[in-house]
């Protein structure tokens, strides 16, 4: 495979990781919130100029463009999705508001419920009923259904979600409604629950389908614009898109289920972290990503970034498709600092890319974390910022900090900046504690991997607060989500419902469902340029004990190529039962030896390998102490003092730097806090150790 580029759009910067036949190149450009595809094309043009090519020549050489997008997430956060309607079975109109009674904080009586993506006036019921076994108890009332569809059309609905009871067993009624919607509302987008999430439970399926319908037109519109610009520029292959599961797949695959692109940017970062975990022999990592707008926390255990399906609450809405677990909060370099009623506040509001922090010199007037770091000396006016894109400026920064923070709180400007630094650090550290404690994980047993443009600025001080002794900062960390897109495997993860006691399962039907999923996967892999012999398959059964609400996925077979589910035989139920007991024991600490599980569905995970990245190593090794570039007045948490500043380009494997110190790289700044030591390894990556 030839040249490939991974792209990740953040709230402030759009990151690029280009793998040529000789090297891996990182770059950044400011994001363009009005049309994010413009930032993608701007960045590709910048990469082309670095290689002495024009944009068309670069696009013509690319075998793959892999893109992680936050368009779906931004749509949910900002509430700018399509005008959506819902058609559902009589009696289930209010399901998405009842939410199974779930509340994010049961003790907060003031916490309002989320705004329903579909208000009640656009949630209409259909007279019909399919039973759990797929039999029709009540035929679809087509006359009443047509009236309901016309009511949605009269309200200007742009996207229709259809979720009928047990449609994942028998989709006939949903398919007929789809035909009627096409007749009455030919311009409307459609999301059918048996296609978006073909399994129980009912609320999870309906919620996921509604989210898909709400964000779908915005995600599809963005990807269509980007694809058109790429093709007009000379790109000749399929656009590949990161999924929330950590895999990538073609644009056409995502067309029916854009919900699978939610959180694809953060997922890319975790996939990149898993690749680093394997390279560094660090199987258990606490991954922290601080960019310009948000702070993401994730875990890599045993060298993998597992995707979990089911109970995934995303921006307060349940999405039950497979997702790499990432906790996100509004804390980044662009987080706004302010004082209200005598209290300091940092975030979640952000200056974003436009106008950005005051020190960007683009018209920002409210101080941010980046402005505070500049006042503290952690960042510099003289160093290039974002790979040489521009330099920071103190002009207007002190005045903004005085007006919005220092004055209202009765502090001097430098103390106010330090308090902003302390507060955002405490907020992020507390987020890590919640993310790890909620999963029964002791962070002291992990190595912290810090990435994002701002992650290395705070990593060591956060690690000490958490009791973590080791921090790893790869030299490619500033564009880690883009890099993760390059190492992510093309993958499809789908399932079909099948309700049956395990011993009595119809083996022919079981085999047929897997073959159906396999054929569908092969078709998409072929479109992406992969032959069946390159596709690896994992066959899973969703199983549960009788009476349980939740199922566990159990791997029953793995192979490469088109086996046609030939492994399905009379012994499969017994093998699957033993495997389920073992998985249940591992997950919950017990199993029921005398109970036989039941099947709730079949699942197929298919994937294929991609070429590994050529990270490259620095050929030379250090022969003396690290050269100090300059000294400047800076506050690294213990008051202002003259602090040694090093440049990444001057450092070689073997160099060791004792804190307090600051290391300036093209796209990030690494702060070595007092009591810490930074060592550059053979790959040119930084290993920080707490020596206190």
Task: Characterise the protein shown here.
The model has no long low-confidence stretch (mean pLDDT 90). Helices cover 32% and strands 26% of the residues. By secondary structure, it is α+β, with helices and mostly antiparallel strands. Among the domains are: 81-218; 492-607, Dna Ligase, domain 1 (2-Layer Sandwich). α10 crosses α15, α12 (397-409) packs across α13 and α13 packs across α14.
Give a brief description.
With 692 residues, this protein is α+β, with helices and mostly antiparallel strands. The protein is built from 17 helices and 36 strands.
- Fraction in beta strands: 25-35%
Instruction: Summarize the biggest pleated sheet.
Output: 8 strands, mixed
Rounded to the nearest angstrom, the radius of gyration is 26 Å
DSSP E strands, number? 36
The average pLDDT is: 90
Number of helices: 17
- Regions with little confidence, pLDDT below 50 for 5+ residues: none
Residues in helices, as a percent range: 25-40%
Please identify the structural class as seen in this structure. Answer: alpha+beta
Which geometry do the CA atoms define? Answer: globular
Strand order of the largest sheet: 19-14-13-24-25-36-35-32
Distance between the termini: 47 Å
């Amino acid at each position: 495979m030839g040249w490939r580029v991974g792209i990740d759009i953040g709230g402030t910067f759009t990151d690029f990781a280009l793998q040529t036949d000789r090297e891996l190149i990182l770059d950044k450009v400011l994001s363009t919130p009005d049309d994010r595809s413009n930032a993608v094309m701007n960045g590709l043009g910048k990469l082309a100029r670095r290689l002495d090519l024009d944009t068309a020549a670069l696009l013509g050489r690319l075998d793959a463009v892999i893109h992680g997008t936050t368009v779906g997430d931004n749509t949910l956060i900002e509430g700018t999705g399509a005008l959506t309607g819902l058609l559902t079975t009589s009696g289930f109109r209010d399901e998405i508001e009842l939410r199974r009674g779930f509340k994010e904080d049961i003790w907060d009586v003031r916490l309002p419920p989320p705004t329903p993506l579909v208000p009640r006036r656009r949630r209409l019921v259909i007279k019909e009923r399919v039973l759990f076994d797929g039999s029709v108890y009540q035929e679809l009332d087509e006359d009443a259904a047509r009236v309901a569809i016309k009511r949605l059309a009269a309200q200007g609905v742009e996207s229709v979600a259809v979720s009928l009871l047990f449609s994942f067993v028998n989709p006939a009624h949903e398919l007929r409604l789809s035909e009627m919607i096409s007749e009455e509302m030919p311009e409307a987008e459609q999301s059918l629950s048996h296609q978006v999430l073909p399994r129980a439970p009912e609320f999870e399926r309906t919620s996921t389908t509604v989210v898909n319908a709400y964000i779908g037109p915005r995600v599809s519109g963005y990807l269509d614009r980007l694809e058109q610009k790429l093709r007009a520029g000379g790109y000749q292959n399929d656009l590949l898109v990161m999924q929330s599961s950590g895999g990538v797949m073609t644009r056409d695959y995502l067309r029916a289920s854009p919900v699978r692109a939610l959180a694809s940017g953060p997922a890319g970062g975790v996939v990149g972290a898993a690749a680093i975990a394997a390279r560094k022999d660090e199987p258990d990592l606490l991954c922290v990503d601080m960019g310009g707008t948000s702070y993401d926390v994730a875990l890599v255990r045993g060298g993998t970034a597992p995707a979990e399906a089911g109970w995934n609450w995303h921006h307060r809405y349940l999405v039950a498709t497979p997702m790499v677990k990432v906790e996100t909060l509004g804390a980044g370099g662009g987080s706004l600092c302010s004082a209200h009623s005598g209290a300091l506040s940092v975030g979640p509001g952000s200056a974003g890319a436009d106008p950005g922090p005051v020190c960007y010199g683009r018209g920002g007037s409210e101080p941010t974390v980046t402005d505070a770091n500049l006042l503290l000396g952690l960042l510099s006016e003289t160093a290039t910022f974002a790979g040489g894109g521009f330099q920071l400026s103190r002009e207007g920064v002190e005045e903004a900090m005085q007006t919005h923070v220092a004055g209202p709180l009765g502090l001097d400007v430098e103390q106010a900046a330090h308090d902003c630094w302390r507060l955002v650090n405490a907020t992020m550290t507390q987020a890590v504690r919640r993310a790890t404690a909620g999963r029964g994980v002791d962070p002291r047993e992990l190595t912290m991997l810090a990435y994002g443009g701002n992650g290395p600025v705070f990593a060591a001080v956060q690690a000490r607060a958490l009791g973590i002794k080791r921090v790893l900062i790869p030299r490619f960390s500033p564009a880690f989500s883009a890099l993760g897109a390059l190492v992510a495997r093309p993958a499809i993860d789908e399932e079909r419902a099948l309700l049956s006691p395990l011993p009595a399962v119809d083996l022919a039907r079981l085999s047929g469902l897997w073959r159906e999923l396999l054929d569908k996967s092969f078709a998409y892999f072929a479109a992406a340029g992969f032959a069946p012999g390159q596709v690896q398959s994992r066959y899973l059964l969703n199983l549960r004990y009788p009476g349980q609400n939740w199922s566990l996925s159990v791997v029953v077979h793995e192979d490469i190529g088109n086996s046609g589910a030939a492994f399905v035989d009379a012994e499969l139920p017994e093998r699957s039962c033993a495997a389920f007991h073992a998985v249940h024991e591992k997950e919950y600490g017990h199993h029921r030896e005398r109970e036989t599980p039941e099947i709730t569905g079949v699942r197929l995970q298919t994937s294929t390998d991609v070429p590994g990245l050529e990270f490259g190593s620095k050929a030379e090794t250090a022969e003396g102490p690290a050269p100090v570039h300059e000294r400047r007045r800076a506050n690294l948490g213990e008051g202002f003092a003259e602090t040694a500043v090093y440049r990444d380009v001057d450092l070689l494997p073997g160099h060791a730097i004792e804190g307090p110190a600051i290391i300036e790289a093209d796209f990030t700044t690494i702060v070595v806090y007092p009591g810490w030591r930074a060592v550059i390894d053979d790959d040119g990556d930084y290993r920080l150790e707490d020596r206190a």
